[in-house]
Amino acid sequence: MVNELYPYIVEFEEEAESPGLETHRKRKRSGNNDSIERGAAQEADSHTGLEPGSDPGQCSVPSKKEKDASTKKESLGHWSQGLKISMQDPKMQVYKDEQVVVIKDKYPKARHHWLVLPWASISSLKAVTREHLELLKHMHTVGEKMITDFAGSSKLRFRLGYHAIPSMSHVHLHVISQDFDSPCLKNKKHWNSFNTEYFIESQAVIEMVQTTGRVSVRDGMPELLKLPLRCHECQQLLPSIPQLKEHLRRHWPK
DNA sequence: GTTCTAGAAC
DNA sequence: GTTCTAGAAC
């Protein structure tokens, strides 16, 4: 029953693209136009678009217990595995070295929002041990380099950290500017995941691993996501997301 | 993680 | 009546 994950073999020179991952996306939204097409930009949006239920090829799914090809393909196509695919795509890679790769978050929650991922397959913080200490430090250093290289002249403040309970598989360090000026930031969960203890500072993770050899995540994390909306700069409570977003403007750097 | 939308909140 | 949130997605 052990799920065998494929090794992340990466060719540094020229990565062969895998065609056929793309699916039709004929769906149209009728209602609001949420011009989401900013950060992810050009072709960034083109893959990983595996919408459940929109698989035109197979309408009939008779048996539910097939452990072979179909199941494996499905697990890789599942949305929670999206980072594993994106990080391999040269078009998505903003930076890479022997240990890590950086991509832009597909749905950035601020003007700058990168993800730093190790090539090594580490499913989550739960799997982190002292053996990963230097790797974690390197991820942090690379995150800081992203800031100086791509936002050095901006006055934006940044935070580096991990979600206590990430939705996406594969350990990833968030590097995010603190303007939270993005159309992709839409709900309370988005806000609280970056502005409560749900967001664990990279430095804290490093120190935890250094001293205890692992990362302990406190209880009650899911509840944090439901807390009232509070401004991270002045602590003011805001009654709704639209009002929070309007409020945030006053803290933007000039 | 996102989309979609019913119905709560205003 | 419109805005906004929150839960399902087979």
Overview of the structural elements:
The protein has 254 residues and is of the alpha+beta class. The protein has a single domain, classed as HIT-like (HIT family, subunit A), CATH 3.30.428. Helix content is 27%, strand content 13%. It has helices spanning 41-44, 69-77, 82-86, 133-151, 188-195, 202-212, 221-224, 241-248; strands at residues 93-96, 100-104, 113-118, 158-163, 173-177, 199-201, 229-230, 237-238. It has a six-stranded antiparallel beta sheet with strand order 1-2-3-5-4-6. A two-stranded antiparallel ribbon has the order 7-8. Helix 4 runs antiparallel to helix 6. The longest helix has 19 residues, at 133-151. It is globular, with a radius of gyration of 19 Å. The protein starts with 40 loop residues before the first helix and ends in a 6-residue tail after the last helix. The model is unreliable at 1-69 (pLDDT under 50). It binds a DNA duplex (10 and 10 nucleotides) through residues 27, 29, 31, 51-53, 61, 79-80, 82-83, 106-107, 166-168, 184, 186-189, 240-242. A motif (Histidine triad motif) lies at residues 170-174. Keywords: DNA damage, DNA repair, DNA-binding, Hydrolase, Metal-binding, Nucleus, Zinc, Zinc-finger.
